[in-house]
Amino acid sequence: MLTMNLTDFYFLIFFSIVLILYYLAPRKLQWGVILVGSIAFCLAGDHPVLALYPVLSSVLIYAMARLIVRFDGYSIKRRACLVTGIVALIVILVILKYLRFAVGLVNEDASESLSGLLVPLGLSYYTFTLISYLTDVYNGIAVPETNLLRFMAFGMYAPTLVSGPILQYRLVSQSFYAEHEFDPEAVARGMQRMLWGFFKKLVIAERLGVIVATVYDDPLTYSGRYVWLAVVCFTIQLYADFSGLMDIVLGLSQCLGIRLPENFDMPFFSRSIAELWRRWHMTLGVWFKEYVFYPLLRSRVHTALQNRLSDGKDKKAKKRAKRISTYIAMLVLWFTIGLWHGANMTFVIGSGLLQWVYIVLEETLDEPFKKLWERMGVNPANRLLEAVRIIRTFLLFALSMAFFRASSVGDAVTLLGCGFKSVASGTVIGALISGFSEQGMRIMNDVSVLGLTYADIIIAIVSLIILFAVDVYKNRTKSDIRDAIATRPVVLRFIIWFALLFYVILLGRYGPGYSAAEFIYQGF
Question: Which pTM value belongs to this model?
């Protein structure tokens, strides 16, 4: 479904109107402005009727939650309400998002007949948000909302429908429903964060996307070093695009006085894939841990499997059985995460099964490597090894994202095959060794062949340096760059933010004749 893009000029006008009305309205009714704005946002799409999905889903979950609190303890009626709500949401999700995929595995022609199914904006995001709310109410860790319209304002909060973050009611409800007075500083800080998101999306992600699209659409022509350039560029593009979107969503929410959970924490400074996923799409990871993985570990099936794998009272056997059964549970987890990203095996492999393989290998090899470093007298925490781990983690993640970006598993295999052939022949290695010699300069010049002008290349490089510097600062200080800028003299602050504003206005890829691509995570 198409709707107003968060980088569109029309959306900025729309948000400005909502912001003004929000602070003009009586504070007790500010949530009403959010609800009306969210409905209007959904109706702005090509198929306004799809707005019924989040509306009816919110009404259903509200009703089930209200019924749950009427019954005492953990009665059958309470459980029936929980199951009814969750199953209804999952059925809608499966029919609209995965039915064609499932049918296509059996009959490709039948799958084509389902291509006309329309998917509402934010289907996966509001579905998971509502499931977590109902589950938390059932478990007694969230107080249910008694006003249907107030709950709908939360259940279909427009900014999060685009690409999240996935909300947990018990964590955000206090901020969401609080009476917010107009705070110029909070609005300014929110707009600063939105501007940083526009910088990531319009200046960096859109430029890198040109290189990525050129190579991924024709890997046989643009093989060798082009492949690795595209693989790395897509990983950075995905980060700039998705984290940029989160900056916009969290920034505009801050303008409204609403605090949403962070979704990124400098993931490319991670030393392992497991750590990277604790810092990438964080709300998705938390959701799957709390509502899928941990219940799976506590289930009778998992306990029975662990007992079957163990051997009597042998402690080593029990430890091994626990590890193996946990890995099997993790396999289910990562398959589900991959499937959440999209109804295609590219997502199941790229953002699911490969991540499971990586993490299992990391945990399996962790102890042997510790012993190896000990025998060699090497401090495993030294800076060189830390840097190697960070680079290794990034490259492994980039390889998996090749499947994520490719249109099919076959295309991904073809693309990576072309890349590995160049490594085997020494083409890429020779280019790296030669640095900025003739071969190294060829790589720089090749970028212009992939659809960017030399000016675009310079802008992209400078912008990436700025992005990297800001992330390094945040990773080292564990503080927001806005806090550091806020301590500077007023004149310097204005110079910094207006410089970034004009940088985005003048160098962002948008405007007449250009339509910014939808956010990469918008359809998930």
Answer: 0.91
